[in-house]
Amino acid sequence: MERIGERIKRKREQNGFQLNELAKRVGISSSALSQIEKAKAFPTIITLKSIAEHLNTTVGELIGENESENVPLVRKKEIKLIETNEFGADMYALSNQGLNKLMDTHMIRFPEKSNSMGLFGKLSGQIYCYMVKGELQFELDNQTYHLEEGDSVYFNARRNFRFMNESKYTAELLCVTSFKNI
Fold first, then answer.
1. Fewest C-beta atoms under 10 Å: which of 5, 52, 154, 180?
2. What domains, with CATH codes, occur in the chain?
3. Count of H helices and E strands in the chain?
4. 128-148 pLDDT, tens per residue?
């Protein structure tokens, strides 16, 4: 039970949620969520499912069903689509989940006329992105940059940013995000 609480807290922090904010979204009190995170209470399956949905993960991951913290390798066939936003961009997980991770890696595919709105959630750390294929427009605090294959950007995730594909071709962006400023 302790590990479930640790996983919930870690995922909550990775997603940039305050305890009271996640509790409100899930429909439980802040006190109840705090007790779950500290392993003093166990969530119902319905609550656990709601927590997982709001943290963009699965119940299986929260309970450690596929604990892969000690497995450093992700094969190409194991890369998973984790999100498609309403603007058509696809985000893929390139690294295994782990309780003690300080960074995450993703590949984002941008079809024609798509953008990154809603893909990054609330991050509090730093982001490094490398343009693998194609071209993108990158907006950072109302300044626009044109990125081409081989270009990279590094910035604080708390800033206002987005990536946009204004070309006719699919673009691919490799992103490494830290969960906190380190």
1. 154
2. 2-62 (1.10.260.40), 76-178 (2.60.120.10)
3. 5, 9
4. 999 999 999 999 999 999 999
